[in-house]
Write a structure and sequence with these properties.
It is a single chain. The chain is built from 1 helix and no strands. It is mainly alpha-helical. It comes from Cucumis sativus (Cucumber).
Length: 64
């Protein structure tokens, strides 16, 4: 009986290029969501100040 050879996977260190590209991809993905959030908030603030300037809304409570 001949002993069979089993091919073992050798563990290698992390691929630096793959790590950098993965990090950049995740950063762009998260950054785009953050930027969309900031644009949405900016739009809300501009709409508020436009309505305030037109006199359609007021920040002063009316006394009854």
């Amino acid at each position: 009986m001949a002993a069979g050879r089993v091919a073992h996977v050798t563990l290698q260190g992390p691929s630096v290029v793959k790590e950098i590209l993965t990090g950049m991809g995740l950063a762009l993905f998260a950054g785009s969501f953050w930027k969309m959030h900031q644009w949405n908030e900016q739009r809300k603030v501009r709409a508020f100040y436009d309505l305030l300037e037109k006199g359609e809304i007021s920040v002063v409570v009316d006394e009854e």
